[in-house]
Amino acid sequence: MRLSTVILPVRRWSDGGREVWQRAEELGFHAAYTYDHLSWRSFREQTWFGALPTLTAAAAATSRIRLGTLVTSPNFRHPVTLAKELISLDDISDGRLTLGIGAGGNGFDATALSQEPWSPRERADRFAEFVALLDRLLTEDAVSSEGTFYSAEEVRNIPGCVQRPRLPFAVAATGPRGMQLAARYGQAWVTTGDPKVSNGGGTPTESLEAVGGQVEKLAKACADQGRDFGELRKIMLTGFTPDRPLDSLDAFVDFAGRHGELGIDELVVHWPIADSVFDADVTVFERIATEGLAQLGAR
């Protein structure tokens, strides 16, 4: 199992921002991700910077840790402009970039450009077209495509990604269409658990069973796509289930062990932010980073 972190873009670079990303590398995290939103929930009235510029700065301030988004969505992105930025960032990071990508939701990002919120069907349709075109833009030197929602006309993306054939996609999905996209285009699949369980007052046991069901559906999607289920990494972004894995080292080891048995092979924990929904004891968090997987392996 791998352990990664997600660092929300809430700090000025000159006032602790740089140091957090460097500390993540020092602690040995496999990857450090950030949210790709214009604003997010309870942080809307607070400091919040752009994901791709933040990752570019992080790439220059680190040398080993992988970097990425969890997740980018079509809400305010277009595949043509996004591809150019991703190729540039993959180059700056020397091939350390992963694109977490999802369909997005009906939060602030969905209406920031004055568009009407998309229906669930349109959102799924857009996501499928978005991922397919982005895949082409990152693997082909010249692309022309006319879609229902996204088009490209003689777009050039030379020299392409440092990572070949392109940087990896980590596709966030819980529904059948998203699972099929993950199986077809993804190098990883991302879940935050089942929101019906988490938002409905479910228990950790019910959440675990729901994640297990998601993994089974992913296996079926891989079979449908003729994809080796074992080659697709399974990432869980924690912090959205009834569990509290950051309460203690033992709590994390128990959480990691139970989800590892389901096939989850990368856990992502939120970097603590005081006085927020992601508040946590920094000392415990750093012990989890440095000792958690070792203790899991010793069980």
Q: What can you tell me about this protein's structure?
A:
This protein is of the alpha/beta class. 42% of the residues lie in helices and 17% in strands. The chain has 9 helices and 10 strands. An 8-stranded parallel β-barrel has the order 1-2-3-4-7-8-9-10, surrounded by 5 helices. A two-stranded antiparallel sheet has the order 5-6. α2 (51-61) runs parallel beside α3. The two termini are 14 Å apart.
Identify the notable features of this structure and list them briefly.
8-stranded parallel barrel; 299 residues; two-stranded antiparallel ribbon; alpha/beta
Short description, anyone?
This protein has helices at residues 13-26, 51-61, 79-92, 120-139, 176-185, 195-199, 204-225, 249-260, 282-298; strands at 2-6, 31-34, 66-72, 97-101, 142-146, 151-156, 169-172, 188-191, 233-237, 266-270. By secondary structure, the chain is an alpha/beta fold. Strands 1-2-3-4-7-8-9-10 form an eight-stranded parallel beta barrel, surrounded by five helices.
Distance between the termini: 14 Å
Uncertain parts = none
Question: Could you report the average pLDDT, rounded to the nearest whole number?
Answer: 97
Widest sheet, order of strands = 1-2-3-4-7-8-9-10
Structural class by sheet pairing and helices: alpha/beta
Topology:
Layout: E1 2-6, H1 13-26, E2 31-34, H2 51-61, E3 66-72, H3 79-92, E4 97-101, H4 120-139, E5 142-146, E6 151-156, E7 169-172, H5 176-185, E8 188-191, H6 195-199, H7 204-225, E9 233-237, H8 249-260, E10 266-270, H9 282-298
Parallel strand pairs: 1-2, 1-10, 2-3, 3-4, 4-7, 7-8, 8-9, 9-10
Antiparallel strand pairs: 5-6
Helix pairs in contact: 1-2, 2-3, 3-4, 4-5, 5-7, 8-9
